[in-house]
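Usage

Read records sequentially. Each one opens with the input sequence:
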Amino acid sequence: MSVDERMIDEVAKIINESENVVVLSGRKVFREIGLNGVTAEHMAYDIEAKYGHSSNEIVTAAFLNWRVEDFFDYFKNVILNPKVKEIPDSVKDVKKLMDYGRVKKVVTRDVYSLYSKAGCEEDDVIALNGTVEDNKCPNCGKIYSSDYVLDNGPVPTCADCKVPLRPGFGMYNEMMDSGKINDSCQAVEDADVVIILGSSAKAKVFNNLLRYIEEEKLIIISDVESFGDEVATYRLYGNISDIMNKITEKVTKVEKPEKEEEPEVPEADDKEADAKEVDEKTADATDSKEE
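and closes with the structure output:
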């Protein structure tokens, strides 16, 4: 699919005129490098054949308690997909736009902490669905990484309490963190421009946020066009990383105005000050004698 170079130029121009861009990062960003996400809809048939249940049934608190070994097998081999260790180029480009002073916040459905691994500050990323890096012991609260989950038997347990870990990503049908939702709404409302990256305008989570942004401030960058995308004035489709790279190459850093240097007030020379003090004392002594 050929990319509209004129649209690339227009989008880059819009970003160059903005200092508060918010990126809504969807599933297709991490699927470009072979990561499946939590529910892995594109693998529905294979998951049903292997586990006898759909992903929506597996990724629940009930299934974790009922069939804990199958749950962690799914966690390790479907969600984590240990063969994939890279960071998508599109994520690296978002980090560059942050460094340029253009992007201020990322709201992501990525559970792999890709933006943090790319170097983004924790406060600049809102991970709506949690992260596979914060697996928690339900007893003592100790946190374990995804590497620990992969390396510690069929059912990874807390090293101290010996109980199965609770995954750090959100389970199916669980309520999202209301604090994260509020922060996301505020970020979108305050934004100059919003970029939907690797998703569509009708994706349930992002669609609820778009009521806070005007059409001319909305950009969609994804692999294919989806129903409802016409709400965005600017739309680009193709390889997500290639498109982001083309845009980033045309974006410049925010130029901060140089501070005017305050004129230095010359300090009196120490010797001159001492001499002046001596003269004043001599004058006082002379006055006293004359009196």
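Summary fields computed downstream for this record:
- The two ends are 104 Å apart (CA to CA).
- Residues 270-290 form the longest helix (21 residues).
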